[in-house]
Amino acid sequence: AADDIAGAGFHLQQAAEKYLKGYLLGKEWPLKRTHDLEVLLTEAITYDSRFQDYRDVCAMVSEFYVEERYPFISSPPPPRNEFEAARDAIQEMIALILRRKD
Question: What is the spatial distance between Cα 96 and Cα 98, in angstroms, rounded to a whole number?
């Protein structure tokens, strides 16, 4: 549905997770079994401090994974404008990853 913020948020979390893991693997980071964007972001910050700018949004987006996997502990999704701001921030983070040449 067009208003399925929780579903869209889950996919946003998945995209952010995959891009962060891809970035880290490109740095020869040993793959770790985690879905926590904050953990992955902390690792990314060790290579590029600009990732620090995405800490708050990654914390918010990580909650979508928990809600999808464990619906009994979920909270209501954020308002549409907050979700759209998070989506835009994650798109910026992904653009930062894609611009990296080293």
Answer: 6
